[in-house]
Amino acid sequence: GTSGLGGTSGLGGTSGLGGTSGLGGTSGVGGTSAASGLGGTSGATAGKVGQAGDDGSGGPKFELVTASGWVEATVECPADKPWVIGTGARSIGSGGLRSVVPEPQDSPNPETVRVAGRAAQMTMAYAVCSDAIGTQILQTSSSNSNSDVFCGTGMVAIGGGGECTGGGMLYRSRPIPDVAGSKPAGWRATCVSGSVTTYAVCVTVAEAFSDCHTERASSIGSALVTCPAHHTAVTAGGYCSVHGLLSMELNAELTKVNVACIDATADVNAYSICCGDRPD
Fold this sequence. Notes:
Elements: E1 62-70, E2 72-76, E3 83-92, E4 97-104, E5 110-117, E6 122-130, E7 136-142, E8 146-150, E9 155-165, E10 170-176, E11 186-191, E12 195-204, E13 212-220, E14 222-226, E15 231-240, E16 245-250, E17 256-261, E18 267-276
């Protein structure tokens, strides 16, 4: 009989699917670069410059004030420095001086300086003005052309003057004692003739006036005296051996005093009371 048909070859099993290759791990995301740290904020802008503080007390302030007039002149201190500390005077010509007087007006403190010369002469009055508190005028009179006045205990004389009556001329107006380097305790005034009234401007020896002393210079006809460094010339005084004083002038910087006599051959002493401590 015919050979039976060979059985069909069984289908070969399909090749098993190869395992899919495992997905490669994704590359790790690179770490993000760290953000730069925030820089500290700049400090706040500088604050406004503050207003300058008030000046420290630094002791009293001084100012030289002058006025001129025919025969007589009166100078008044300004409102911010109302008190007279010291005096000076000048006869504009050759007549000489009859009076140099610190005077109170509306209070016990001296506020003006009155200067008188010989008739028919121009005169100039000088006032050293200050905001110092506690100044006072002491005065005394004498009929013998010479008189002294002294400040009280615990006070110093920082100025003065004199007034001649009866036609006399002033030839001495200076501190007591008159030795260079001494602490002024009073004032002496002398006239060529007639009677005299002497004035002293006194102040308590507080810190501002604890370093006040007399300076003196001598010459013929005229003399110039200078205060040491860091000191203020607060008043002018003078002496002439004959005829009388022509001028006792302070310079604008309050460092020097110039004294002149009517007679250019007279012995002359120039005096200044010098007080520290000025900011030179």
